[in-house]
From TrEMBL:
The keyword Metal-binding applies. This is NAD(P)H-quinone oxidoreductase subunit 1. Its main location: membrane. Residues 529-558, 569-598 form the 4Fe-4S ferredoxin-type domain. It comes from the Eukaryota. HAMAP family: NDH1_NuoH (MF_01350). The keyword Translocase applies.
Length: 635
């Protein structure tokens, strides 16, 4: 049926699916006059045109450019063809109101489809996201360890400054807390020097072995309730096995440096590690087999938590606690056990030839080892996150539902409290190790080995008794022939206690350090000092300009090209601005600067300042010999 061309009020509707995947389904072109059907013409769709073959093996994103290239919505909506295609194929345009309605519906439908596709994509990448989620706790642990190391460095500097009655770091950040970060940043940009005749491979991988072996040990530390990276059945022995690898890295670094001092430092590190690894292992073995019946760090903490404060292994094995503490300090190479890097003997030991980031790795490794040792002291002997203290009902005060999460997350508030308790105990032992550094002198190598093999090893072998009196009795029976060690132990304990008392008494005193002057001081009225300059000695090096805090000296010079030297033209200092810090005088290489008399004399002649007996208040001899003069005693 043909429709007259003059009829403009007729509507032509395309009926039937036109999606390419329908493979040529019959479509109908219907002509409507209001609600009456005037004409209906059957037309095959895309059949035999090749379009359905193009879309047959493609996704919707791939075949859309073929079928919707004329559609203004193709770049916005993936379902535009199913909605807008019929109007385009039927050569009709819907009213503007209907077009806006279609756009709104397509926005809603497209959002739902995109959400479905997004979550289906997550399912397809489930394994990738699983790997990423495994890395999240590892990155959190590394970040926490890094912050802890920065805090330890700042704490050691502040405590050391207090003990030595000086002012510690105070300019890098609030209270100087960013000083360690500034030092680490400086090491990142320093040049990495490699010895010309050294073993480059051993020299390069030595620091990495030391750091990585210590970082892996943090994976078995239970920081709180269900707050451990990996709960191995052999967690404690895993720490001992992995920490034994670190001295190998030190020995490789010393050997690869081609330096006798570095090699001696590496040998000392290996010998020291072997000597104190055995007593430390025996201490862990006695706790695992006799007290906890498990090698898991989580089980060891749980075994101590059953009996509260008096269930800590500290009370059950006090001698073992002392042996473990001494052995852990020796493993960390802290004073008085810092023989592998003794400055007075080996320059810097195995670190002598290192610079830049490699030196920074050794620096970080030492503090990482100190932190992990303090954490294991807390876990093995102080109950970990257990805070059961007699007469203080802390457990009732912190009675919190363990299923409660902060802000609806899976992070437990109880974990935060446990973490705080664990770190508080850990930092207490860090404080003890820092105090020990400034209290005790360095041991000799023979004294260090004798302490490990002849004293700590016999004690650790007989440490399995739980009663302290039986433990001490068997200890002295084991060291028959070395009875003098008992007297030496008592004497050493007394001396160590006295040194701790002296050190702690100095910590309360005010610092006596004179701060560097950054502004002009108000001098006395009798001050007449000035800087004297000798023109002939000056070589125009401008060292005084660089060391002056206010850049005060003015040096004018000219380069003599024939002799390639500087010739001084003028030198001046404005004494109205000078703060008289004396840096220019101290650093001048030719001593052309000197300070005159700072104060005017109280007499016109310097010789008048030499006091004799008369000037000191005594009578002259001629007066004393006169018999007419008698001394009168007033009663």
């Amino acid at each position: 049926m043909n429709v007259p061309a003059t009829r403009k009020d007729l509507m032509i509707v395309n009926m039937g699916p036109q999606h390419p995947s329908m493979h040529g389904v019959l479509r109908l072109i219907v002509t409507l006059d209001g609600e009456d059907v005037i004409d209906c013409e059957p037309i095959l769709g895309y059949l035999h045109r090749g379009m359905e073959k193009i879309a047959e093996n493609r996704t919707i994103i791939q075949y859309l450019p073929y079928v919707t290239r004329w559609d203004y919505l193709a770049t916005m909506f993936t379902e535009a063809i199913t909605v807008n295609g019929p109007e385009q194929l039927g050569n009709i345009q819907v009213p503007k109101r209907m077009k806006l309605k279609l756009i709104v519906e397509m926005i809603i439908d497209t959002t739902e489809v995109q959400d479905i596709n997004y979550f289906s994509g997550l399912e397809s990448f489930k394994e990738v996201y699983g790997i990423l989620w495994i890395l999240v706790p590892i990155l959190i642990l590394v970040l926490g360890i890094t912050i802890s190391v920065l805090a330890i460095v700042w704490l050691e500097r502040e405590i050391s400054a207090g003990i030595q009655q000086r002012i510690g770091p105070e300019y890098a950040g609030p209270f100087g807390i960013l000083q360690a970060l500034a030092d680490g940043t400086k090491l990142l940009f320093k040049e990495n020097l490699i010895p010309s005749r050294g073993d480059i491979r051993l020299f390069s991988i030595g620091p990495s072995i030391s750091v990585i072996s210590i970082l892996i040990s943090y994976s078995v530390i239970p920081f709180g309730y269900n707050f451990v990276l990996s709960d191995f059945n052999i967690g404690v022995f895993l720490w001992i096995a992995i920490s034994s690898i670190a001295p190998i890295g030190l020995l490789m670094s010393g050997y690869g440096s081609n330096n006798k001092y570095s090699f001696l430092g590496g040998l000392r590190a290996a010998a020291q590690s072997i000597s104190y690894e055995i007593p430390l292992t025996l201490c862990v073995l006695s706790i695992s087999l006799r007290l906890s019946n498990s090698l898991s760090t989580v089980d060891i903490v749980d075994a101590q938590s059953k009996y509260g404060f008096w269930g800590w292994n500290l009370w059950r094995q006090p001698i073992g606690f002392i042996v473990f503490l001494i052995s852990s300090l020796a493993e960390c190479e802290r004073l008085p056990f810092d023989l592998p890097e003794a400055e007075e003997e080996l320059v810097a030991g195995y670190q002598t030839e290192y610079s830049g980031i490699r030196f920074g790795l050794f620096y970080v490794a030492s503090y990482l080892n100190l932190l992990i040792s303090s954490l294991f002291v807390t876990v093995l002997y102080l109950g970990g996150s257990n805070i059961s203290i007699p007469y203080i009902f802390v457990s009732e005060f912190f009675e919190i539902n363990k299923t409660y999460g902060v802000f609806g997350t899976t992070i437990d508030l109880f974990i935060t409290i446990d973490l705080f308790i664990t770190l508080a105990k850990t930092y207490f032992f860090l404080f003890v190790s820092i105090i020990t550094r400034w209290s005790l002198p360095r041991l000799r190598m023979d004294q260090l080995l004798n302490l490990g093999w002849k004293f700590l090893l016999p004690i650790s072998l007989e440490r399995n008794k739980t009663k302290i009196f039986i433990d001490i009795y068997d200890m002295f029976l084991m060291v028959t022939g070395f009875m003098n060690y008992g007297q030496q132990t008592v004497r050493a304990a007394r001396y160590i206690g006295q040194s701790f008392i002296i050190i702690l008494s100095h910590a309360n005193r005010l610092p006596v350090t004179i701060q560097y002057p950054y502004e002009k001081l108000i001098t006395s009225e009798r001050f007449r000092g000035r800087i004297h300059f000798e023109f002939d000695k000056c070589i125009a090096c401008e060292v005084c300009v660089r060391v002056c805090p206010i850049d005060l000296p003015v040096v004018d010079w000219k380069l003599e090209t024939d002799i390639r030297k500087k010739r001084l033209l003028n030198y001046s200092i404005d004494f109205g601005i000078c703060i008289f810090c004396g840096n220019c005088i101290e650093y001048c290489p030719t001593n052309c600067l000197s300070m005159t008399e700072e104060y005017e004399l109280s007499t016109y002649d310097r010789h008048e300042l030499n006091y004799n007996q008369i000037a000191l208040g005594r009578l002259p001899m001629s007066v004393i010999d006169d018999y007419t003069i008698r001394t009168i005693q007033i009663k």
